[in-house]
Specification:
By secondary structure, the protein is α+β, with helices and mostly antiparallel strands. It has 2 domains: 212 residues, Rossmann fold; 135 residues, Coagulation Factor XIII, Chain A, domain 1. Strand 16 and strand 17 form a beta hairpin. The radius of gyration is 27 Å and the shape is globular.
Length: 431
């Protein structure tokens, strides 16, 4: 039987609302004890023994979490914000202690949970590389062997002897990731920090993670980018409100997660807006979004059938605008960009928009295959001296509606866009 490198049993973490964990130095603890040893021991006993305060004063960030990770496994950790993903990794990294349960870790851990995790701001980049290596239990010779590779990956050779407090956030991130990935821990844990870097750096990071997994080391990868999760991971755990909702093969878990998120978001965008409260904002607001079959309220778009995208908006009466632009981009369920639309692209300006209005974009013979999609929406108002932006993200579903002339839909590996086409066959001159 394959040995487990991570074994999590009934793990739970409880926080007191509106209270932060205080970390004190050893000197502070000794001083506190010397001033009033009886009170110190009494307070310590209360913390160890727990509290009888109302449970309403506490929130469970994790509750009854159990699963295992095998050597060489690349596990994607997914879920909405506040689901407990980062708390889980902090417990596994020994940054914080669980309230209940246990987590058994076999192997050396390298963790990148936030920009510059484990770095000391007053030390130089060079000193922090050696400090991080020492924390991982590496010898100086081992760190030296990897040093040039780390610096080259991070692209900070010119500033390697500069204190990291003077680094930009991008430099900080690149060096932190390079250290975490190249010092060869047995288990590498990476939180959503890849979202901070530019596209080139993200590609380098994903390449490094793929190399790490190919070398047989274990990776825990937290991300909202489902494309990256599908590409990199072989399994996934879906965290929901501090609990494990699904654990298994990555494609199955991601598909179920996307379906659930789409269903939840669809419910959010069918409610009518409250006109009485909408004028209180000083900014343009998206009040409601609907993707539908053209002229049919309450339906969903269909492949090959005219579709409409409807945007209900509110503009403060006291701050009218001259023109309104509505721009949106459509993405697949893996985060890939498909196409974008906007009235400004067709030079169809909306002049003197009303305080409450509806902008409708019609797309003939909607060309997307059946499935779930995400839409990013921007409302841009142009006044005499200002430009206002209101952004929103929603989801919508596309049903089978005739395939735009297709008898059958091509395999999904050939993309989501269905192109109208006609075929002919002509003879060629053999001479």
């Amino acid at each position: 039987m394959m040995e487990r490198v991570i074994q999590i049993d009934s793990l739970g973490k409880k926080y007191k609302i509106c209270e932060r964990e205080n970390y004190r130095s050893f000197r502070e603890l000794i001083t506190s004890y010397g001033k009033n040893p009886i009170k110190y021991l009494s307070d310590l006993g209360a913390k160890i023994g727990g509290t009888r305060e109302n449970d309403d004063n506490y929130v469970w960030a994790l509750k009854d979490v159990s699963f295992e990770v095998k050597p060489g496994q690349v596990l994607g950790v997914i879920g909405s914000n506040g689901a407990g993903k980062t708390t889980l990794l902090k417990i596994l990294s020994r940054i914080t202690k669980p309230t209940e349960g246990r987590a058994v870790i076999r192997g050396r851990i390298g963790a990148l949970l936030e920009v510059g995790t484990g770095f000391h701001s007053e030390l130089t980049g060079r000193e922090n590389v050696f400090l991080s290596g020492a924390i991982l239990g590496m010898k100086k010779a081992e760190i030296l062997n990897k040093f040039d590779e780390i610096v080259d990956f991070a692209g900070v050779s010119k500033f390697i002897d500069t204190p990291v407090k003077r680094y930009s956030s991008g430099m900080y991130l690149r060096l932190a990731f390079a250290v975490a990935a190249h010092l060869e821990p047995d288990i590498l844990m990476v939180d959503e920090v890849l979202a901070v870097g530019d596209l080139e750096f993200q590609q380098k990071c994903l390449g490094a993670l793929e190399y790490t997994s190919a070398s047989g080391r274990t990776v825990l990868f937290v991300s909202h980018n489902m494309t990256a999760v599908r590409t990199l991971c072989d399994s996934a755990v879906w965290m929901d409100k501090g609990k494990v909702r699904r654990f298994g093969v990555v494609d199955e878990v991601v598909d179920e997660y996307i379906q659930a998120m789409t269903s939840d978001r669809d419910k959010l965008h069918v409610d009518q807006f409250d006109e009485g409260n909408s004028t209180n904002s000083n900014r343009i607001r998206l009040l409601r979004f609907e993707a539908r079959t053209a002229g049919r309220k309450g339906t969903v778009p269909q492949t090959g059938v005219d579709a409409e995208f409807v945007f209900d908006f509110a503009i403060p009466k006291e701050n009218p605008i001259v023109t309104l632009d509505v721009i949106f981009g459509i993405f697949d369920d893996r985060g890939g960009s498909i196409f974008g639309c906007g009235n400004q692209y067709n030079d169809e300006q909306i002049y003197d928009p009303p305080p409450f209005g509806k902008a409708i974009c019609r797309v003939p013979k909607f060309p997307l295959r059946p499935g779930n999609y995400r839409i990013d929406i921007i409302l841009k108002g142009h006044g005499s001296d200002r430009v206002e932006l209101a952004e929103n993200t929603a989801t919508f579903r596309v049903n089978d509606g005739g395939h735009s002339g297709f008898k059958r839909i091509p395999h999904s590996k050939y993309g989501d866009v269905l192109v109208s086409q006609n075929w002919i066959c002509e003879p060629i001159d053999e001479t």
